[in-house]
Amino acid sequence: MVSDNGRISFSKAGDYITYGTCPIPREKDTTLVEFEQPKLDIWSWNDEYIQPIQLKNLNREKKRTYLAKINIDGTNPVQLADPTLESVGIGDENKEQYVITYTDKPYRMSQQWDMNPKNDVYKVSLIDGSKELLAKGAPFNMMMSSPDGKYYTFYDAEARIWYLYTLATGEIKDLTSELGVIFYNEDHDTPSLPRPYSSAIWSENSDYFLIRDRYDYWQFDPTGTKAPFLLTEGKGRATNTTYTVANPYNDPKSFMGRSLKINAGKPIYFRTFDRTTKETGFAIKDVTKRRATLRQLVKGPYTYDAMGICTTGKKPIYIYSRGRFEDGNNIWLTSDDFKTQVQVTDVNPQQRDYNWGTVELVSWNTADGIRAEGLLFKPENFDPARKYPLMIYFYEKYSDDLYASRSPAPSRSTVNIPYFVSNEYIVFVPDIYYTDGHPGQSAMKSIMPACDMLCEYPWIDGDNMAIQGQSWGGYQVAYMITQTNRFKAAGSGAPVSNMTSAYGGIRWESGMARTFQYEQQQSRIGKDLWEGFDLYIENSPLFFVPNVTTPVLIMHNDEDGAVPWWQGIEFFNALRRCGKKAWLLQYNGEAHNLRDRRNTRDLSIRLEQFFDHYLKGKPAPIWMSKGVPATLKGIDLGYGYEQ
Asked: Nearest CA to 141 among 86, 196, 179?
């Protein structure tokens, strides 16, 4: 039947319309009384998706439609998509008789643990809706159609090569293996196949497309008449700078609704990122000119972003954001190619009234000999003759955010860097470098040598260091305090403490089983529970709790949709059983990261009180020294101190 949830669209030429259909829904039997109907979810071993995913997506599935088309005169209705091939797209410029699409439907069960791409690829007739299977179980993704529908680019995740498919001939052409550079993420550090650096971006008239390596964009001619060449002239690789197209747009009616395009007949703008200095900027290449050259418009120790361009006058006016930690983030404009820059907003004038801070890039060698980077924040009133307590916060890698703007705000889960710096802590944010199968020890090998490096500064109080992290960072904090007694205090938010039990859990916010993240993603074990049992034990803080000497503040909330709530409880109960100093903050009805402002304010107060007690010698508040019994819930928050 025609669905009232479908989108009705005219083709650009006006010769047909597309609309959505759906199976006729089954009606509920209203003759059965409600109190006699059982209420349950039935989990089946061979379901495409487990019940939590099905329930999470229930409303979307009830509204799912399948693309169909019909001529404007009412003739030749054609069903293009259906429950076996759910997604088909036709771009506005497409005048071909076929489109290419793919589906992961046969592989959805295995996707619960295998996140590497696997799809069946089909050729679909726009004349009669017939479907031809072109490839089964192909490791393809990032498939993009040219606007005219004649060509398709796709990335083979196993071969790590970009290809071009020509619809008329069925030819598949290798685009990148002979170019001498790598087009997949060289820093990929999880046990899964690396993704490419970018998707393909087509010109709107289909005469060329762009693909980026780590630094530069390559321009390709789909006809093969012109050889591939470096649109960004190799300047990215030569200067350790990454170029990213700043002004693409998306065609929502194209293949799978996500084809990026570039306006024909207009200059191409790039956002630049210097991988050495972390400086950003904008560059331009006016491809409308016969001898176009790449030109840097601006670059500096800021985060430049979100550029808008007004070209109604003789010269373009650029409107953009510019910010960094010291200055905050504001809107700027220039009308003379950045010779002068005019600040339009002043969003945080009150910042000047507070003890703010500075940030710098530092480096050290990890225990594995990797040259690592991290961010070191100091108070604005920094005195090198003083000793400062050190707060270490970490999560994957943040050094590229050297010039990011950071705002003081109540904490949703982590220590707020401006707040702690303003209150005369040194804050350190190190990058972590991982080895598959040993994420816990990887954190140790990255952070412990960094602590040694920092303690060489006379103004770092090596006897008063703390660590804090949330989620994956919370896990690493929990693991590290079972391996070292070097830290005076620790904050562990939403930690996985027992990988053997977490492996079989559910990420309730998405409904997905957690197996994928241990075997292929962030947890980086790289094996299933049975093949890698010793690794799951090795990396589980729970089994080493007797070693803990560091007081720890845990936050884990009872509606956490990412990390099972019982993981924090397991960790707390183990610490309590072994007589270790531990507190667990459980915010009622809260998610993985706090949402309710009253709760974020409360967590901020408790983080400050906890770390001030252990690192600055301040008195312990009542909630730490005596606790707050359930009889006083909502009556006494325990912020005060014993008289």
From this structure: 196
- pTM of the predicted model as reported, rounded to 2 decimal places: 0.93
Instruction: Specify the DSSP class assigned to residue 445.
Output: H
CB 357 within 8 A of CB 379: yes
What whole-number distance in Å separates Cα of residue 101 and Cα of residue 28?
35
Q: 372 near 431, Cβ under 8 Å?
A: yes
The whole-number pLDDT of residue 254 equals 55
Asked whether 183 and 218 are in contact (CB, 8 A), the reply is: no
DSSP H or E stretch at residue 126: none
Residues 6+ apart with CB under 8 A from 377: 325, 357, 358, 359, 417, 421, 426, 427, 428, 429
> Taking the CB of residue 583, how many other CB atoms lie within 10 A of it?
17
| Residue 401 pLDDT exceeds 80 | yes
Reply yes or no on whether the pLDDT at 329 is more than 70: yes
Say whether 612 sits in a helix, a strand or coil: helix
For residue 457, give Cα distances in angstroms to 227, 289, 369, 450.
54, 54, 21, 12
Q: How is residue 261 written in tokens? A: 């395009």
CA 17 to CA 10: how far, in whole Å? 4
Identify the three-state secondary structure at position 373. Answer: strand
At 408, which helix (H) or strand (E)?
none
Strands 371-379 and 151-156 turn out to be unpaired
Token code pair at residue 205: 């008239």
Angstrom distances, CA of residue 230 to CA of 173, 187, 285, 364: 19, 22, 12, 35
Phi/psi for 498 (5° steps) reads: -135, 100
For residue 3, the surrounding DSSP H or E stretch is: none
| CA–CA dist 80, 97 (Å, integer) | 12
Domains (ranges, CATH) in the chain? 350-632 (3.40.50.1820)
**Tally of CB atoms within 10 A around 57:** 14
Q: How far is CA 188 from CA 191, 271, 375, 443, in A?
A: 9, 22, 21, 16
| pLDDT tens digits for range 71-103 | 999 999 999 999 999 999 998 888 899 999 999
How would DSSP label each residue in 561-608?
Answer: SSS-HHHHHHHHHHHHHTT--EEEE--TT--SS--SHHHHHHHHHHHH
Q: Burial level of 22, CB count in 10 A (0-12/13-18/19+)?
A: middle
HEC assignment per residue over 17-39: EEEEECCCCCCCCCCCCHHHCCC
Amino acid at 631: T
Round to whole Å and give the CA distance between 164 and 495. Answer: 44
